[in-house]
Protein backbone atom coordinates (compact mmCIF):
# COMPACT_ATOMS: atom_id res chain seq x y z
CA UNK A 1 0.00 0.00 0.00
CA UNK A 2 1.27 3.44 -0.98
CA UNK A 3 0.19 5.33 2.14
CA UNK A 4 1.48 8.68 0.86
CA UNK A 5 -0.75 8.65 -2.21
CA UNK A 6 -3.63 7.12 -0.28
CA UNK A 7 -3.57 10.00 2.15
CA UNK A 8 -3.72 12.44 -0.77
CA UNK A 9 -7.06 10.88 -1.71
CA UNK A 10 -8.51 11.83 1.69
CA UNK A 11 -8.46 15.60 2.34
CA UNK A 12 -9.58 14.95 5.91
CA UNK A 13 -5.96 14.04 6.69
CA UNK A 14 -5.02 17.70 6.19
CA UNK A 15 -7.52 19.03 8.74
CA UNK A 16 -7.57 16.49 11.59
CA UNK A 17 -6.55 13.05 12.78
CA UNK A 18 -9.61 11.08 11.71
CA UNK A 19 -9.94 7.80 13.62
CA UNK A 20 -13.69 7.37 13.34
CA UNK A 21 -14.21 5.09 10.34
CA UNK A 22 -16.53 2.80 12.30
CA UNK A 23 -18.95 5.75 12.37
CA UNK A 24 -18.49 7.03 8.82
CA UNK A 25 -15.63 7.07 6.36
CA UNK A 26 -14.55 10.48 5.05
CA UNK A 27 -15.27 11.13 1.40
CA UNK A 28 -12.38 10.24 -0.87
CA UNK A 29 -11.40 12.41 -3.81
CA UNK A 30 -12.26 9.83 -6.46
CA UNK A 31 -15.83 9.61 -5.20
CA UNK A 32 -16.10 13.39 -4.88
CA UNK A 33 -15.09 13.76 -8.53
CA UNK A 34 -17.72 11.19 -9.51
CA UNK A 35 -20.35 13.11 -7.57
CA UNK A 36 -19.51 16.27 -9.46
CA UNK A 37 -19.64 14.37 -12.77
CA UNK A 38 -23.15 13.20 -11.95
CA UNK A 39 -24.29 16.69 -10.99
CA UNK A 40 -22.92 18.03 -14.27
CA UNK A 41 -24.95 15.47 -16.20
CA UNK A 42 -28.07 16.41 -14.26
CA UNK A 43 -27.49 20.11 -14.88
CA UNK A 44 -26.81 19.86 -18.59
CA UNK A 45 -28.26 16.60 -19.91
CA UNK A 46 -30.36 14.73 -17.35
CA UNK A 47 -31.63 12.41 -20.08
CA UNK A 48 -28.07 11.06 -20.33
CA UNK A 49 -27.39 10.60 -16.63
CA UNK A 50 -25.07 7.63 -16.02
CA UNK A 51 -26.29 4.34 -14.61
CA UNK A 52 -24.23 1.71 -12.86
CA UNK A 53 -26.44 -0.69 -10.89
CA UNK A 54 -24.94 -3.75 -12.57
CA UNK A 55 -21.39 -2.43 -12.17
CA UNK A 56 -21.91 -1.95 -8.43
CA UNK A 57 -23.15 -5.53 -8.09
CA UNK A 58 -20.11 -6.78 -10.01
CA UNK A 59 -17.68 -4.91 -7.78
CA UNK A 60 -19.42 -6.12 -4.61
CA UNK A 61 -19.13 -9.66 -5.92
CA UNK A 62 -15.41 -9.14 -6.60
CA UNK A 63 -14.85 -7.85 -3.07
CA UNK A 64 -17.12 -10.17 -1.09
CA UNK A 65 -17.70 -13.27 -3.20
CA UNK A 66 -20.84 -14.81 -4.61
CA UNK A 67 -22.42 -13.93 -7.93
CA UNK A 68 -23.38 -10.38 -8.97
CA UNK A 69 -27.02 -11.42 -9.36
CA UNK A 70 -27.12 -12.45 -5.68
CA UNK A 71 -26.76 -8.79 -4.67
CA UNK A 72 -29.68 -6.38 -4.33
CA UNK A 73 -29.01 -2.68 -3.95
CA UNK A 74 -30.64 -1.05 -0.92
CA UNK A 75 -30.09 2.11 1.09
CA UNK A 76 -28.79 0.74 4.41
CA UNK A 77 -28.02 -2.26 6.57
CA UNK A 78 -31.33 -1.83 8.38
CA UNK A 79 -33.34 -1.89 5.16
CA UNK A 80 -31.57 -5.04 4.00
CA UNK A 81 -32.12 -6.88 7.28
CA UNK A 82 -35.73 -5.69 7.54
CA UNK A 83 -36.49 -6.99 4.04
CA UNK A 84 -35.22 -10.40 5.09
CA UNK A 85 -36.99 -10.44 8.47
CA UNK A 86 -40.30 -9.47 6.86
CA UNK A 87 -39.91 -11.88 3.95
CA UNK A 88 -39.64 -15.19 5.79
CA UNK A 89 -42.87 -17.22 6.12
CA UNK A 90 -42.81 -17.41 9.90
CA UNK A 91 -44.88 -19.90 11.87
CA UNK A 92 -45.83 -19.60 15.56
CA UNK A 93 -43.10 -21.24 17.61
CA UNK A 94 -40.30 -20.41 15.20
CA UNK A 95 -37.31 -18.67 16.76
CA UNK A 96 -34.46 -16.34 15.89
CA UNK A 97 -31.12 -16.60 17.68
CA UNK A 98 -28.92 -13.53 17.94
CA UNK A 99 -26.39 -12.04 20.35
CA UNK A 100 -27.63 -9.46 22.81
CA UNK A 101 -26.51 -5.84 22.45
CA UNK A 102 -26.04 -6.07 18.71
CA UNK A 103 -26.46 -2.85 16.76
CA UNK A 104 -30.03 -1.60 16.47
CA UNK A 105 -30.10 -2.56 12.79
CA UNK A 106 -29.48 -6.20 13.69
CA UNK A 107 -31.86 -6.09 16.65
CA UNK A 108 -35.02 -4.16 15.80
CA UNK A 109 -35.98 -6.15 12.66
CA UNK A 110 -35.93 -9.36 14.71
CA UNK A 111 -37.58 -7.96 17.84
CA UNK A 112 -40.37 -6.72 15.60
CA UNK A 113 -41.22 -10.35 14.82
CA UNK A 114 -42.42 -11.05 18.37
CA UNK A 115 -45.86 -9.75 17.40
CA UNK A 116 -46.01 -12.53 14.80
CA UNK A 117 -45.40 -15.21 17.41
CA UNK A 118 -41.68 -15.59 16.72
CA UNK A 119 -39.49 -16.26 19.76
CA UNK A 120 -36.40 -14.08 19.98
CA UNK A 121 -33.55 -15.86 21.76
CA UNK A 122 -30.84 -13.45 22.87
CA UNK A 123 -27.35 -14.73 23.71
CA UNK A 124 -25.22 -12.92 26.27
CA UNK A 125 -21.61 -12.10 25.37
CA UNK A 126 -19.12 -13.77 27.65
CA UNK A 127 -17.04 -11.98 30.30
CA UNK A 128 -14.59 -10.89 27.60
CA UNK A 129 -17.40 -9.49 25.38
CA UNK A 130 -17.04 -12.39 22.94
CA UNK A 131 -19.79 -14.30 21.11
CA UNK A 132 -18.74 -17.88 20.45
CA UNK A 133 -20.33 -20.61 18.31
CA UNK A 134 -20.62 -22.67 21.49
CA UNK A 135 -22.69 -20.02 23.26
CA UNK A 136 -25.00 -19.70 20.25
CA UNK A 137 -25.33 -23.48 19.90
CA UNK A 138 -27.00 -23.73 23.31
CA UNK A 139 -29.92 -21.69 21.98
CA UNK A 140 -30.32 -23.16 18.49
CA UNK A 141 -32.76 -25.99 17.79
CA UNK A 142 -34.77 -27.33 14.89
CA UNK A 143 -37.32 -24.49 15.19
CA UNK A 144 -34.61 -21.91 14.66
CA UNK A 145 -35.28 -20.23 11.32
CA UNK A 146 -32.59 -17.53 11.47
CA UNK A 147 -29.25 -17.10 13.21
CA UNK A 148 -28.26 -13.43 12.95
CA UNK A 149 -24.90 -12.00 14.02
CA UNK A 150 -22.71 -9.00 13.34
CA UNK A 151 -19.46 -9.90 11.61
CA UNK A 152 -17.83 -7.28 13.87
CA UNK A 153 -19.57 -5.87 16.92
CA UNK A 154 -19.83 -2.09 16.81
CA UNK A 155 -19.46 -1.65 20.58
CA UNK A 156 -16.39 -3.82 21.19
CA UNK A 157 -14.68 -4.56 17.88
CA UNK A 158 -15.06 -8.32 18.43
CA UNK A 159 -14.94 -10.29 15.17
CA UNK A 160 -17.13 -13.37 15.01
CA UNK A 161 -16.16 -16.81 13.71
CA UNK A 162 -18.58 -16.63 10.78
CA UNK A 163 -17.70 -19.93 9.15
CA UNK A 164 -18.29 -21.95 12.34
CA UNK A 165 -21.54 -20.13 13.08
CA UNK A 166 -22.69 -20.64 9.50
CA UNK A 167 -22.03 -24.39 9.72
CA UNK A 168 -23.91 -24.49 13.02
CA UNK A 169 -26.95 -22.69 11.60
CA UNK A 170 -27.09 -24.93 8.54
CA UNK A 171 -26.96 -28.12 10.61
CA UNK A 172 -30.35 -27.04 11.95
CA UNK A 173 -31.70 -25.81 8.62
CA UNK A 174 -31.54 -22.14 9.68
CA UNK A 175 -30.71 -19.15 7.50
CA UNK A 176 -27.41 -17.54 8.48
CA UNK A 177 -27.77 -13.74 8.38
CA UNK A 178 -24.82 -11.40 8.87
CA UNK A 179 -24.68 -7.66 9.55
CA UNK A 180 -21.44 -6.84 7.76
CA UNK A 181 -21.15 -3.10 8.06
CA UNK A 182 -18.22 -3.05 10.52
CA UNK A 183 -16.30 -5.74 8.63
CA UNK A 184 -16.74 -5.42 4.86
CA UNK A 185 -13.81 -3.48 3.46
CA UNK A 186 -11.80 -3.68 6.68
CA UNK A 187 -11.27 -7.41 7.22
CA UNK A 188 -11.23 -10.25 4.69
CA UNK A 189 -14.74 -11.61 4.11
CA UNK A 190 -16.16 -13.98 1.53
CA UNK A 191 -19.80 -15.04 1.54
CA UNK A 192 -18.93 -18.46 0.14
CA UNK A 193 -15.95 -19.23 2.36
CA UNK A 194 -17.78 -17.92 5.44
CA UNK A 195 -20.95 -19.91 4.67
CA UNK A 196 -23.14 -16.78 4.71
CA UNK A 197 -26.69 -16.93 3.35
CA UNK A 198 -27.57 -13.24 3.78
CA UNK A 199 -25.15 -10.34 4.14
CA UNK A 200 -26.54 -6.83 4.67
CA UNK A 201 -24.33 -3.79 4.69
CA UNK A 202 -24.39 -0.03 4.29
CA UNK A 203 -21.67 1.47 2.15
CA UNK A 204 -20.70 4.50 4.20
CA UNK A 205 -18.12 3.02 6.55
CA UNK A 206 -15.25 0.77 5.48
CA UNK A 207 -16.71 0.31 1.97
CA UNK A 208 -15.90 3.94 1.03
CA UNK A 209 -19.43 4.97 0.16
CA UNK A 210 -21.83 7.60 1.46
CA UNK A 211 -24.93 7.32 3.67
CA UNK A 212 -27.77 6.09 1.48
CA UNK A 213 -25.74 3.35 -0.23
CA UNK A 214 -25.89 -0.31 0.65
CA UNK A 215 -26.73 -3.86 -0.42
CA UNK A 216 -28.21 -7.11 0.73
CA UNK A 217 -26.64 -10.33 -0.56
CA UNK A 218 -29.07 -13.28 -0.66
CA UNK A 219 -27.65 -16.52 -2.01
CA UNK A 220 -29.57 -18.63 -4.47
CA UNK A 221 -30.22 -21.41 -1.95
CA UNK A 222 -32.28 -19.24 0.41
CA UNK A 223 -33.96 -16.93 -2.10
CA UNK A 224 -37.01 -19.25 -2.26
CA UNK A 225 -37.30 -18.93 1.55
CA UNK A 226 -37.41 -15.10 1.56
CA UNK A 227 -40.33 -13.40 -0.18
CA UNK A 228 -40.01 -9.90 -1.67
CA UNK A 229 -42.02 -7.54 0.52
CA UNK A 230 -41.44 -4.12 -1.06
CA UNK A 231 -41.37 -4.66 -4.83
CA UNK A 232 -40.81 -1.64 -7.02
CA UNK A 233 -40.03 -1.11 -10.67
CA UNK A 234 -36.62 -2.78 -10.45
CA UNK A 235 -37.89 -5.98 -8.79
CA UNK A 236 -39.24 -7.59 -11.95
CA UNK A 237 -39.66 -7.58 -15.69
CA UNK A 238 -41.10 -4.58 -17.48
CA UNK A 239 -44.74 -5.71 -17.50
CA UNK A 240 -47.53 -3.41 -16.31
CA UNK A 241 -50.16 -6.17 -16.16
CA UNK A 242 -48.35 -8.96 -14.34
CA UNK A 243 -45.70 -9.06 -11.63
CA UNK A 244 -42.87 -11.24 -12.89
CA UNK A 245 -40.08 -11.12 -10.31
CA UNK A 246 -36.51 -11.42 -11.50
CA UNK A 247 -35.18 -14.95 -10.83
CA UNK A 248 -32.37 -13.58 -8.63
CA UNK A 249 -31.72 -11.15 -5.77
CA UNK A 250 -32.93 -8.19 -7.81
CA UNK A 251 -36.43 -9.23 -6.72
CA UNK A 252 -35.67 -7.55 -3.37
CA UNK A 253 -35.02 -4.16 -4.94
CA UNK A 254 -37.65 -1.44 -4.90
CA UNK A 255 -37.67 1.84 -6.83
CA UNK A 256 -35.17 4.53 -7.58
CA UNK A 257 -32.03 4.89 -5.50
CA UNK A 258 -29.97 7.98 -4.72
CA UNK A 259 -28.14 7.57 -8.01
CA UNK A 260 -25.49 10.25 -7.45
CA UNK A 261 -24.41 8.44 -4.28
CA UNK A 262 -24.23 5.04 -5.96
CA UNK A 263 -22.37 6.51 -8.92
CA UNK A 264 -19.81 7.97 -6.51
CA UNK A 265 -19.71 4.72 -4.51
CA UNK A 266 -18.47 2.87 -7.55
CA UNK A 267 -15.22 4.84 -7.34
CA UNK A 268 -14.87 3.96 -3.64
CA UNK A 269 -15.34 0.27 -4.40
CA UNK A 270 -12.78 0.52 -7.20
CA UNK A 271 -10.31 1.95 -4.68
CA UNK A 272 -10.87 -1.05 -2.40
CA UNK A 273 -10.44 -3.54 -5.22
CA UNK A 274 -7.28 -1.77 -6.34
CA UNK A 275 -5.79 -1.56 -2.82
CA UNK A 276 -6.90 -5.04 -1.74
CA UNK A 277 -8.81 -5.75 1.46
CA UNK A 278 -6.08 -8.12 2.74
CA UNK A 279 -3.60 -5.22 2.45
CA UNK A 280 -6.01 -2.88 4.23
CA UNK A 281 -6.53 -5.45 6.98
CA UNK A 282 -2.78 -5.81 7.42
CA UNK A 283 -2.40 -2.03 7.83
CA UNK A 284 -5.30 -1.82 10.29
CA UNK A 285 -3.83 -4.70 12.29
CA UNK A 286 -0.52 -2.84 12.55
CA UNK A 287 -2.22 0.40 13.63
CA UNK A 288 -4.49 -1.28 16.18
CA UNK A 289 -1.52 -3.25 17.56
CA UNK A 290 0.25 0.07 18.11
CA UNK A 291 -2.85 1.50 19.73
CA UNK A 292 -3.44 -1.51 22.00
CA UNK A 293 0.20 -1.47 23.13
CA UNK A 294 -0.02 2.22 23.99
CA UNK A 295 -3.32 1.91 25.86
CA UNK A 296 -2.06 -1.10 27.80
CA UNK A 297 1.22 0.63 28.69
CA UNK A 298 -0.76 3.50 30.20
CA UNK A 299 -2.76 1.12 32.39
CA UNK A 300 -6.12 1.94 30.85
CA UNK A 301 -8.97 -0.55 30.52
CA UNK A 302 -9.09 -2.24 27.12
CA UNK A 303 -12.61 -3.46 26.28
CA UNK A 304 -11.84 -5.03 22.91
CA UNK A 305 -10.98 -8.76 23.08
CA UNK A 306 -7.41 -9.17 21.82
CA UNK A 307 -6.39 -12.71 22.81
CA UNK A 308 -6.89 -14.06 19.28
CA UNK A 309 -5.82 -12.33 16.08
CA UNK A 310 -8.77 -13.90 14.24
CA UNK A 311 -11.13 -12.02 16.58
CA UNK A 312 -9.54 -8.63 15.92
CA UNK A 313 -10.98 -5.99 13.60
CA UNK A 314 -10.33 -2.33 12.80
CA UNK A 315 -12.00 -1.20 16.04
CA UNK A 316 -10.45 -0.70 19.48
CA UNK A 317 -12.61 0.27 22.45
CA UNK A 318 -11.16 1.40 25.79
CA UNK A 319 -12.02 3.28 28.96
CA UNK A 320 -9.92 5.80 30.84
CA UNK A 321 -11.95 5.28 34.03
CA UNK A 322 -15.37 6.68 34.85
CA UNK A 323 -17.91 7.96 32.30
CA UNK A 324 -17.03 11.53 33.34
CA UNK A 325 -13.34 10.92 32.68
CA UNK A 326 -14.14 9.41 29.28
CA UNK A 327 -16.30 12.40 28.37
CA UNK A 328 -13.51 14.76 29.39
CA UNK A 329 -10.97 12.81 27.35
CA UNK A 330 -13.31 12.73 24.35
CA UNK A 331 -13.63 16.52 24.53
CA UNK A 332 -9.84 16.81 24.78
CA UNK A 333 -9.36 14.64 21.70
CA UNK A 334 -11.79 16.81 19.77
CA UNK A 335 -10.03 19.96 20.94
CA UNK A 336 -6.74 18.55 19.63
CA UNK A 337 -8.30 17.63 16.28
CA UNK A 338 -8.44 13.89 16.95
CA UNK A 339 -11.80 12.43 15.94
CA UNK A 340 -13.01 9.28 17.71
CA UNK A 341 -16.40 8.12 19.07
CA UNK A 342 -17.77 8.22 22.60
CA UNK A 343 -20.25 5.35 22.80
CA UNK A 344 -21.76 3.58 25.80
CA UNK A 345 -19.42 5.45 28.16
CA UNK A 346 -16.33 4.19 26.36
CA UNK A 347 -14.00 5.51 23.65
CA UNK A 348 -13.98 3.82 20.26
CA UNK A 349 -11.04 4.28 17.89
CA UNK A 350 -11.26 3.04 14.31
CA UNK A 351 -8.43 3.86 11.88
CA UNK A 352 -8.90 3.57 8.12
CA UNK A 353 -6.82 2.69 5.11
CA UNK A 354 -5.45 6.28 4.97
CA UNK A 355 -4.19 6.45 8.58
CA UNK A 356 -0.55 6.01 9.55
CA UNK A 357 1.44 5.44 12.74
CA UNK A 358 1.78 9.19 13.31
CA UNK A 359 -1.99 9.39 13.73
CA UNK A 360 -1.89 6.75 16.45
CA UNK A 361 1.03 8.52 18.14
CA UNK A 362 -1.00 11.74 18.17
CA UNK A 363 -3.81 10.03 20.06
CA UNK A 364 -1.44 8.32 22.49
CA UNK A 365 0.33 11.61 23.16
CA UNK A 366 -2.97 13.16 24.28
CA UNK A 367 -3.49 10.18 26.61
Structure description:
The strands form three sheets. Strands 2-8-7-6-5-3-4 form a seven-stranded mixed sheet, with helices on both faces. A four-stranded antiparallel sheet has the order 9-10-13-12, with helices on one face. It has a two-stranded parallel sheet with strand order 1-11. It is an alpha/beta fold and 367 residues long. It contains eleven helices and 13 strands. The protein is 34% helix and 14% strand. The chain has two domains: 107 residues, Aspartate Aminotransferase, domain 1 (Alpha-Beta Complex), CATH 3.90.1150.10; 240 residues, Type I PLP-dependent aspartate aminotransferase-like (Major domain) (Aspartate Aminotransferase, domain 2, 3-Layer(aba) Sandwich), CATH 3.40.640.
Amino acid sequence: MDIVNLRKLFPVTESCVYLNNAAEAPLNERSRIRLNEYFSHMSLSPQDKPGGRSRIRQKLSTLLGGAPDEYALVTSTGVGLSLVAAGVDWLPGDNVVLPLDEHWNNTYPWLNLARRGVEIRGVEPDANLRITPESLARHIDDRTRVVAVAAVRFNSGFRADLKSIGHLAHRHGAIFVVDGIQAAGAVPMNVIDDDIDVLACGGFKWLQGLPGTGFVYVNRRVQPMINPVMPGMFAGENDLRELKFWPDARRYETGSLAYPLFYAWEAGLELLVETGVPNIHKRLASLTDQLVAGITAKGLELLTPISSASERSGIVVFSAGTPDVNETLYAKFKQEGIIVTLRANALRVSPGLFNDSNDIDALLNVL
